Structure formats: C-alpha cells, structure tokens
Amino acid sequence: MKMKKILALISTFTLALVTACGGGGGAAQPESPGNTETPPAQESQGETAVPELLPEEGAKLVVWESRDERAYTDAVAKEFTEKYGVEVLVEEVNPTDQLTKLGQDGPAGLAADVVVFPHDSLGKAVTSNLVMPNDFFEEKTRNNNTEAAIQGVSYDGVLYGYPRAAETYLLYYNKELVSEPPTSMEEVIEFSKTFTDKSKNRYGFMFETGNLYFAYPFLASTGGYIYGNGGTDINDIGINSEQTLQSMEVYASLREILPVKSGDITPDIKRGLFTSGDLAMDINGPWELGGYKDALGDNLGVAPIPTIGGQPAVSLSGIKAWYVNSYSQYPQAARLFADFAISKEAQLKLSALVGSVPTNNEAQEDDQIKNDEYISAFTEQFRSSVPMPSIPEMANVWSPVGAALAEIWDNNKDIKETLDKAVSQIKDLNSGGAAK
C-alpha cells in the first residue's frame, strides 16, 4: 500500500511536469490500470475542483460517436475547441463496434482518442489494456454522478469511464391508435389481435425478438438472469433456469400477433412503421425519442414495459460513457474532452436531443428533466432494470442467446432445449477465455 502511494505521487508529479511543459508527441503507451489515485482536490461551490490540466501543444483529437447522437457530440466538440483551441474530428462509429475497432487500430495509433461503448464491454477493454483509468478527474467524476453510474463505468474497483447517460428502453405508443397503454402482455395480445394485419404491413406491437438486449424482459421478469452474484459469477448462468422459462412462454405466445421472422425486425423497419402509423407500439430506447416526437408530436406516448407473467418487466440497463484510448497521442487533451463532455450542461444537451437520462446529480434535479414526461417515464423503467454484466465473459453471451431466441421465435423450437444449448455454448466459450 505504501509503495502504491509513492508510485501515485510519482505519477502525479510526472503528469504535472508534462502539463507545465505542454508536452505531446509520440504514441502514448497504455497506463497501468491499477493506479487510480488522483492529485489533491479542492472544494468549490457546485463541483469539486481539481488542479488544472492543459492539452498538449498542437493536440488534435478524434472522437467516435454514433450517428444517432452525433448532434450532441458536434455541439460539445465545437464548445471544447472554442475553450481549449483543440481541433476535434467526430467520426461515426456504432458504439457496439467501437471496442473491436479500438482493439484493431489502437496499438497502431489509428483509433480515436476518445471512444464510447456500452459498459458491458468495459471488462474486456480493461483486460486488453485498451482504455486509461479516469484518474485525473476521478474525484470530480465520483462526486458529480450517481453511484449506479460510477459502478457501471468501474471495473474491479477502478474508475475508467466518464459517464454521460443512463439508458434502458420502454414502451412507445401512438395515442391515435392506442387510447390507453397496456399494462400487461395479455393486454398487448388482446389489442394486437384487432389491429395487426400482415397483408397491410400493419402491426400492433414490435420489439427486436432476436436481440438479447430487448428480449431480456422475457428472460428475467419472472426471476431469470444472465450471470449470478450481480453479474459476476460465470459459473452461475440463469438463462435456462425454471424462472426464465415462465417469461419465455410469454415470449413465444407473442408470435401470434407478430408473425414476422426475427431477422426482419430491424431498427430501421420498426422506425419506418411506427413513424408512418403502421405500428401502434414499439419497445425502444431514448435514441429514438427525438425522431418519434418529430413524427408523432403530441400523439407520442410512453409507458413502462407491460408486465410479463404477472411481474413487472425487468429491462437491461447500461451506462453510456466516454473512455480515453490508452494509445492516444494526446492523453491530456483526451481526458479534458471526456470530462468536458459530461458536465451538467452537456448531459442536459444530450437529454434534450435524444431523451437520455442524465447521470449527473445536478442535471437529474434540473426542471428540464423532472418536468419532462418522456424522461420521467424512462426514469421509472430504469428503476425496474438491472445493469448489464461488465465482466469480459459477457461478450460470450450475446451470440448464443441471440441464436437461441431466433430458433425459438422463427422455428418454434423447444424453449428449454434451445436455451440449454445456448448455455452449453456460453460455458464452452468461457472455458476458453473471453470472446475475442
């Protein structure tokens, strides 16, 4: 412990020296994920103050962002450039693809300096030494954000991420077509029987049936789970448990009112149907809120996911966060950007654009959030959610379970046997290490 403090002081002194000299240049080598101690912080009104960090001389940053949230990052990047004089290039890369791309391009110095990906990928990113700890702004980040957000962007007790939003999904509905949102899946089926007409490409209810993220309520609402012990025990897999089978019976029953192959239920297809009035209800996330509001206006309604098997629907939730590439040529400028982009003002901007739930404590108490019927509904569903496991072995879950869901939905395969097979595949992958 004494040696760790000495090393932390040396690290702090070195960082301050580099800052004073405006140093940059040369690809940064990955920093040790064990060092999370920060320079002494001073208290200020509102937020925790930290010693000044300056960008490297001549710093230029590349930031990866999703297409759906590009407007927020463009706005933040412009403000950052105005304040620090650092040019920021925003490139569109799907967050679910960023970790793979970072692993391929990071060591060669070709990846973005600042990236964003779902927190369930953090364990793999850390064990591959691809992201730097959030060290310089650690105390400030911890003080300004919710505990759940901090837990989501930490791994093995070390803070890595700069949290910017909490995400889950809920039920969108068209008020012109649905007078009152259903409170149970039984009511969803009852309504859809009167509305769905496949010959007219019109449906009462949709969700991505082959995607574990959106199908999770049908695994977990009656007691199922992915990994036990809060998502950390790879020897306890609950995907094929008796509790899961209860929810999955409800899942299978929905085929009657959604006679579409799982591969044909895509985000683009659902978006087109919902905004044109040919889909009455859609389970989706905050990234669709802006577009849905533009299309439906006051006719857009939101509500918690209807109960499944008589139990509140348990959705998966994630903490979206920025991370600094370990191989960034400009780690100081990258840290500055990541911190700048999660301020109260930045999170309120993101929420206004895409309907995200802020993780910043002050932003959550802002009238913009508290008085927004849509964000309030997401907050309510978030309370009935569980965070995605962040251990590396979570990467081994998506494909086997997605394939199992497709077999059950498309081919009416036996639920128990199909899920047993998926669990066996997950165990085989886990025994060989995390998915690459």
Q: If you had to describe this structure to a student in words, what would you say it looks like?
A:
The structure is a single chain. By secondary structure, this protein is an alpha/beta fold. It contains 20 helices and 15 strands. It is 43% helix and 15% strand. α12 (267-276) runs parallel beside α13 and α19 packs antiparallel against α20 (415-431).
Largest pleated sheet: 4 strands, mixed
The total beta strand count reads 15
Structural class: alpha/beta
What is the molecular shape?
A: globular
Strand-residue proportion: 15-25%
Unreliable spans are 1-47
Helix content: 40-55%
Kindly report the average pLDDT value: 88
- CA radius of gyration is 23 Å
DSSP helical segment count? 20
Name the descriptors.
436 residues; alpha/beta; four-stranded mixed β-sheet; 20 helices; 15% strand; disordered N terminus
Summarize this structure briefly.
Helix content is 43%, strand content 15%.
Q: Mind sketching the topology for me?
A:
Blueprint: H1 2-21, E1 42-43, E2 48-49, E3 60-65, H2 70-84, E4 87-92, H3 95-105, E5 114-117, H4 122-127, H5 138-144, H6 147-152, E6 154-155, E7 158-159, E8 162-167, E9 170-174, H7 185-195, E10 203-206, H8 212-215, H9 217-220, H10 228-231, E11 233-237, H11 242-253, H12 267-276, E12 279-284, H13 289-296, E13 300-303, E14 315-324, H14 331-340, H15 344-354, H16 361-364, H17 367-370, H18 373-382, E15 385-387, H19 398-411, H20 415-431
Helix pairs in contact: 2-15, 12-13, 19-20
